[in-house]
Amino acid sequence: MKFFSYILIYRRLLLIIFTLLLLLPLPIVLHTKEAKCAYTLFVVGIFWLTEALPLSVTALLPGLMFPLYGIMPSKTVASAYFKDFHLLLIGVICLATSIEKWNLHKRIALKMVLMVGVNPAWLTLGFMSSTAFLSMWLSNTSTAAMVMPIVEAVVQQIISAEAQVKATQMANCNGSINHGLEMEECVNEDETNETKEKTKPVPGHGNYAEKISNKKELEKNAVTGIEYPTKKNHMMCKLMCLCITYSSTIGGLTTITGTSTNLIFAEHFNSRYPGCRCINFGSWFLLSFPAAIIILLLSWIWLQWLFLGFDFKEMFKGGKTKTVEQKAYADVIKQEYKKLGRIRYQEIITLVLFIVMALLWFSREPGLFPGWSSLFTEYRGFATDSTVALLIGLLFFIIPAKKLTKTTPTGEIGIAFDYAPLITWKEFQKFMPWDIVILVGGGFALADGCEASGLSMWIGNKLSPLGSLPVWVIILLSSLLVTSLTEVASNAATITILLPILAPLAEAIHVNPLYILIPSTLCTSFAFLLPVANPSNAIVFSYGHLKITDMVKAGLGVNILGVAVVMLGTFTWMVPMFDLHTYPSWATTVNNGTMP
User: Fold this and answer.
1) Phi, psi angle pair for 413, to nearest 5°
2) H or E element: which one contains 82?
3) Helix 61-68 and helix 33-50: axis angle, to 10°?
4) Residue 53 CB-density burial (10 A; 0-12 exposed, 13-18 middle, 19+ buried)
5) Interior angle at CA 361, CA 357 and CA 362, nearest 5
6) Closest to 538 measured CA to CA, from 551, 525, 549
7) Of 501, 544, 507, nearest in space to 520 by CA
8) Are residues 301 and 311 in contact, defined by beta-carbon separation less than 8 angstroms?
9) Is 363 helix (H, G, I), strand (E, B) or coil?
10) Closest C-alpha among 79, 108, 84, 80 to residue 381
11) Contact residues for 415 (Cβ-Cβ < 8 A; gap 6+)
12) Beta bridge partners of 421
């Protein structure tokens, strides 16, 4: 037993040693650049999938192994670790830092929830919409971490208010509070049998949720140990947790900056196919926004039906809120919003810079009309989305966080001489994901090594027999592959490993690379099944309301819906956008080896 305990303790060290030794014959026996690059690719891929080393540490291996194997000079490898992507990320993190520092995310989230109403289904949709919107500009991890405390506070207040009202109703009916009685026994005198028949619980509908709300829930919160008053309360907590993590992931699909996988794809694609010039912030938004909206709505319906039932009549009932629960929802959210007070100067400036950044991104090269980049004809192609992000990002370090004038306690107006910017460098450093910077850089270095060694061309030639399969089968298989792989591996690691394989595959079978790469990139974000599959999943799981079986059951449905919608978009609105049915000249140039 001691021997096995030692193995368990040193399993990561043993995995590292055995991986390096077992694969070592590959470069020694074949002794070609392709074999040496394949050895590096396999080692890095296994370490990423198993997390034998931290992801960012594994990402440094190409910088060590490529120069030693004569694949690329050290200076060339080092240049791959910092690219246009990193400048874009820096600008976006500046925005995210200011948004959280001045609580603009809370104001946006609560305001959107107030706009959609307080019916339980609409409340869920409100939180999902606001979370998805925030996730378009922030990472899904940050978004879930920001919104979840608000949701938890709202849910707990709702449960408390509901319990108080039910206790009062029990006292009115029985003269004393009897927790063993069900609410159905307390009926108004003028209630008729016909009314009772109409409100008979029906599984799969809202009335079913009312029925289960009257049964005592024996389970306790895994973290707090507090017992849920009713089954419905527990289901409500599960629903809210899952809707936050799923919508934070879905929202990230819509923008290049929304998730690291989109950024990795854009940088890899633009580096491999510089002649395309078709993937930018605007074009990505147009192709992914419809898909994200459809997935969000279908996920909302699926989660609502799964946990609380879906009653269309109750949802679209006109008039003011009628139920005690709905009044509790409205009161809690209004109180939370009032706590924020009037919108402050810092929030206004952050919001203005946020809007300006989005407008500059959309109008740079919209495609429908000449963008502002066309004004710089002499330097066309020099300014990218990262240029815009840096411009706005630097302004957060320049614009004062306080107005120049202030009111003294005596009512006199004086000048404020203490200058401080909207964000400081220390605050920025807390938000900057340096591990992602190194991880993505290692992926770029790995991709460059595959090109320089000829491994990409070798893989493409070996995969050319797949051209006999229908294109939709290849796209479906690649989408299912990345969706499955991303459940057990990092999203960024998954897309980094597969991009150098899928791009040569498309070239080998003479299919527009975007036809395979776009759906594969979108499906890489569908990590919905397990807490370890996505940081936002882990955040909501830590609140103790969910079991792993809850996430698997709900996430499997969202995964299926996501892949189906991506397939639908790939064969409908994305086809005319990029002329996907035509094999482009910019891909032919790369395939012939005339492009670096």
Assistant:
1) -95, 120
2) none
3) 160
4) middle
5) 120
6) 551
7) 501
8) no
9) helix
10) 84
11) 404, 405, 406
12) 400
Written as one letter, the residue type at 294 is I
Query: Concatenated DSSP letters for 473-509?
Result: HHHHHHHHHHHHHTTTS-HHHHHHHHHHHHHHHHHHT
102-107: long-range contacts at Cβ-Cβ below 8 A with a sequence spacing of 24 or more? 102/344, 102/346, 102/347, 102/350, 102/422, 103/340, 103/347, 104/347, 104/350, 104/351, 105/134, 105/138, 105/143, 105/146, 105/147, 106/146, 106/150, 106/336, 106/340, 107/337, 107/340, 107/343, 107/347
Count how many Cα atoms sit within 13 Å of the Cα of residue 471 in the half-sphere of its side chain: 20
Evaluate whether 361 touches 281 at the Cβ level (below 8 Å). yes
Largest CA-CA distance found in the chain, in angstroms, rounded: 90
The angle formed by the CA atoms of residues 142, 561 and 253, to the nearest 5 degrees, is 35
Residue 150: burial class (beta carbons within 10 Å; 0-12, 13-18, 19+): buried
463-471 long-range contacts, CB within 8 A, separation 24+: 463/501, 463/504, 463/505, 463/508, 463/509, 464/508, 464/509, 466/505, 466/508, 466/509, 467/508, 467/509, 467/510, 467/511, 471/511, 471/515
| Residue pair 586/580 in contact by the 8 Å Cβ criterion | no
Give me the helix-helix angle, 104-116 and 140-174, nearest 10°.
50
486 CB contacts (<8 Å, ≥6 apart)? 494, 523, 524, 525, 526, 527, 533
Per-residue pLDDT tens listing for the chain (596 residues): 677 787 888 888 989 999 999 999 988 888 888 899 889 988 988 887 777 888 789 889 999 999 999 999 999 999 888 877 778 778 878 887 888 888 887 787 777 667 766 677 787 888 888 889 888 877 777 678 777 777 776 777 666 656 655 665 566 655 544 443 333 334 443 444 444 444 444 434 444 444 444 444 456 776 566 677 778 778 888 888 899 989 989 998 998 878 888 888 888 888 888 888 788 888 888 889 999 999 999 999 999 888 877 666 666 554 444 566 667 667 777 787 888 888 888 999 998 998 888 788 777 766 556 777 777 766 666 777 788 889 999 999 999 988 766 555 555 555 555 678 999 999 999 888 787 788 778 877 887 887 788 887 787 677 667 777 888 898 998 888 888 877 766 777 778 778 888 888 888 888 899 999 999 999 988 888 877 677 788 778 877 788 888 888 898 999 999 999 999 999 999 888 888 888 888 887 555 544 43
At 594, phi and psi to the nearest 5?
-90, -5
Q: How many other CB atoms are found less than 10 A from the CB of residue 217?
A: 16
Q: What are the structure tokens assigned to 63, written together?
A: 């910088």
Q: What is the DSSP annotation of 202-247? A: -TTSHHHHHHHTTSPP--B-TTT-PBPSSHHHHHHHHHHHHHHHHH
The residue to which tokens 């499997």 are assigned: 556
Which residue from 596, 444, 593, 574 is spatially nearest to 512, judged by alpha carbons? 574
Residue recorded with tokens 């070798």: 458
Torsions phi, psi for 490 (to 5 deg): -60, 140
Nearest to 260 by CA among 396, 105, 142: 142
**Dist. CA 75–CA 515, nearest whole Å:** 34
